Amino acid sequence: MPIAESDIKWIEAPKLGFLEQLYLPIVYDGLKTTIGHIFGKSKTESYPEQEPKLPPNYRGVHRLNRDEQDRVKCVACYMCATACPAHCIDIVAAPAPAGWTDREKYPETFVIDELRCIYCGMCEEACPVDAIELTTLYDLTGYSREQLVFDKEKLLGIFDATTKSGTDPVRSRSGALGPASETAKA
Amino acid sequence: MPTVYVNDKPVEIGAEKLNCVQVAAKAGVEVPHYCYHPALSVVASCRMCLIEMGELKDGKVTMQPKVFPGCQTPVKDGTVIVTGDYAKRKGETALPYDPAYKPGDRTKKAQADTLEGLLLNHPLDCPVCDKAGECKLQDYSYEFGHGESRLMDAKNRPANKPELSSKITLFTDRCILCTRCVRFTREISGTSELQVVGRGHHEEIDVFPGFPLENKLSGNVVDLCPVGALGSKDFLYTQRVWYLKTTDNVCAGCSTGCSIHTDANKDIVYRLRPRENLENQGHFMCDEGRWGYHYTNAPDRITRPLTRIDGALKPTDWQSLSKLKETFEQAVFVSAKKSVAVLSPFLTVEEAYRLGAAFKSMHREIRLVLGPVPLTGVDDHYPKDVKGNAVAPTKFTIRAEKCPNRTGVESVLKKLQGEVISFADIAKLTLDAIWFAGGYPNPDVVDAAIPDDWAAPKLLIVQDLFHSKLTRAATTVLPATTAFEKDGTFVNHAGYVQSFHRSVKAPLEVRSELQLAFDLAGKKGLATVAAVRKDFAKELPQYASLAEIALNTNGRLTLATV
Hints:
Chain A is of the alpha+beta class. Chain A has a domain at 62-170: Alpha-Beta Plaits (2-Layer Sandwich), CATH 3.30.70. Chain A contains 5 helices and 5 strands; from the N terminus they run ααβαββαββα. Chain B has 3 domains: 3-107, Ubiquitin-like (UB roll) (Roll), CATH 3.10.20; 118-297, Alpha-Beta Plaits; 306-374 and 405-561, Rossmann fold, CATH 3.40.50. Chain B has helices spanning 20-26, 105-118, 136-144, 180-187, 220-224, 287-290, 324-334, 349-362, 406-417, 423-427, 443-449, 469-473, 513-520, 529-539, 544-548, and strands spanning 3-6, 9-12, 50-57, 60-69, 79-82, 168-170, 194-197, 204-207, 230-232, 245-250, 259-265, 268-274, 306-309, 312-315, 339-343, 367-370, 380-382, 396-398, 421-422, 433-437, 459-464, 476-479, 488-491, 496-500, 559-561. In chain B, α8 (349-362) runs parallel beside α9 (406-417). Chain B starts with a strand and ends with a strand.
C-alpha cells in the first residue's frame, strides 16, 4: 500500500548556530565519555579464563529432563516440534515400554539440530510436561555439522551434566500429564 | 410449502422427514452432537444436541418450557428451533416471541453443563492423544464449554484395552459413551462384537471374552469415535493430525471405488479415511482398503527403470531408454499380429485412453488387451446375521473384483478396437512383443494369470509396481505409479465415475503412465489429464462431462455420473 500524502510529515534540518559550527562542544562531549572509562571500573571480561555469570532464564543449549525414575520425561506430544519456528526438532513417537504405567507414549528418537535452532525458547514454553528446557550452556562447538545434531542420549546427557555441575538445577518436578492441563488444586 | 424456523431463519423442508439437527444444517446452523450419526439409529444419549423448540401458530410463537435433544425430535410445518448460537444470527428478532423469553440462553447453559458432565472423567491427555486436532470434544469444549472443571474427586481411570482387536485399541478413560461404535457393529457390520458393560460411572465399551472386534469393516469405529477412545493401531503415534495434508481420492482396493480422504505428510501416505458419498458407498469403507495403502511406501517397490543386460536386470535411467519407443515400434512393424499391449484395470481412464491410442497409432492391427482382473471370492454384503449370512437391506458391499477401473478401461478398449480381449486369451499364444502397463499392488495377481508353460516374447516391456513372473522375464522394466500419485478417473462396478487428484508425489525416478503415453505418441511437453479429457470427450461421449471439470489446485474432487 502506498503511503498517503497526508501521513507524510516533512522536517527541515535544524539551523546550526555559531558554537555548533565550531564542532568543539561535540568533540569535548565525546572525549568526556572516553576519558571517563579510562579512570572508571573496568567492565572487560577475560573470557575464556573468566566465565560470565548467566541468569537462569538464559536461552542456551537444550536439555531433555529426566523424571524421578531417571526415565525421559518427554511424552512425545510434538508440541515443541509444532511450536518450533525453525523446524529443528524431529521426534519419532512409539508406545511406551511395558512397565511405564504412567504414560502411553514416549519418544523413540528425539533429535534437535542445534545449528538450525534459533534459541527462541518456544519449545520450552510449549512443553506440557516440562521435559525440554534451555540451559545456560552457550559455548557450543563441534568439528562437523553432524556433531551438532543432538539425539536423545546427548540431550539427556546435558541434563545430567548441568544438574550435576549445578549451573542449571532441576526447575520443576511437576508436570504429570492430565491434571497439569487443569488448574492446580490447593 | 412446510416451513421450519431455525434461529428465525425460514427453511422449507418439502416432504422430507427431518430431525432438528438436519434442519439446522440446512439453515447453515451447526447443532453440536456426538451420538447422532446419519447412518446409525438415534439414541439421544450424549445430550449435546439440545435445542429449544416451539411452534409458530396464528402469528404467535409458543415455546416449550424445556430443552429437547435435536437428533430425536422431528420437525413439522411451523416448528421453531432456537439453538445456543441464537445470538450469532444477523438482524433483530424476526419472530413474535414472548417478551419474557430469552432465545438461546437455556440451550447455551444446557450445552455447557452437558460438556462439563462429559469431561468429568475424561483424562485431558490431549498432548498424547492421536485425536487431538480433530477431536469433537476439544472443538465443542472450546466453543460451548465451561473453562474449568468443578470436580473435586479423583477421576475414574479404567485400564486401556489394547486387546480389543488386532487392529484397534481402546483408551477406555477417554470414552464418552456415545455408543456409535456399538451401534455400528450391530447395524452396519451386523457382527455385534462391541457392547457397553457396567453401570453409571463405571460403564465401559468392551467385547465378550474370546470374541474380539474382528470384522472386515472394523476400522470404521475409529472414524465414528468422536473422541480419541478408539484408535487405529496402524496410525497410532505415527503423526499428529495437524501435520497431515488431506486430499480427496478414490480407493483402488475394489470395484466399489469408495470415496476416501488421503492423509499424507511429506509425500508419505499415513492414513485413509472414508469420505461421505451417498451416491456411491455411503459413509464407510472396508478395512482392506483402509489399511491396504502400504504398498505405496513398500521398500521392495520398483522405483526406477531396469533393463536386461547380460541376462540380468540392471538399474538404468530414462535417458538411456530413449530408444524404447523405436524398439517397440519396430517390433510392431515387423509383426503387428503378434504384438500386444496390455492395459491393466488399475489404470485410469485417461491413461488407458492415451496409451491405447498411442499403440493403435503405431499399427492398426496391434491388439489391446485388458490386463488380469483380480477376483477374490464373492461380493461380501453387510450387515450380517449371527451365522454370517448377509441380511437385507444391504448397507455396505466389499466387491470380489479387487481393481478400481475395469469398467473404465473396458469402455476405452471398446472404443479403440470394438472389443475387449481378456488376458487369458493371449496368455496361451506365442507372441513377439508385449507392452504390459500394469500397476498391480499385488504381484500375485499377475503371477496367477501367467500359465506355467508360458513362453516369454522376445520383447517384453513391463511397467509395474512390484516384481512378478513378468518382470523376471522382461527385457525392460519400468516403474509404475499408484492411485495416490496420479490425477485421473476411475469408473466403478456400477458405472459411477469419479475423478481425483494426486495426493503425494511419485518417487523421483518414476514417470507416470500418462507421461509415458505422451512420449509414445510423440507428443511434446508435460502430460496433463485436462488435455487428455478434452481429447477423448469427443470420442467417448459418456465421459464428455469430464472435459468440463476445471482442474483446480486445492485437491477437491469433482464428480460426474455416466
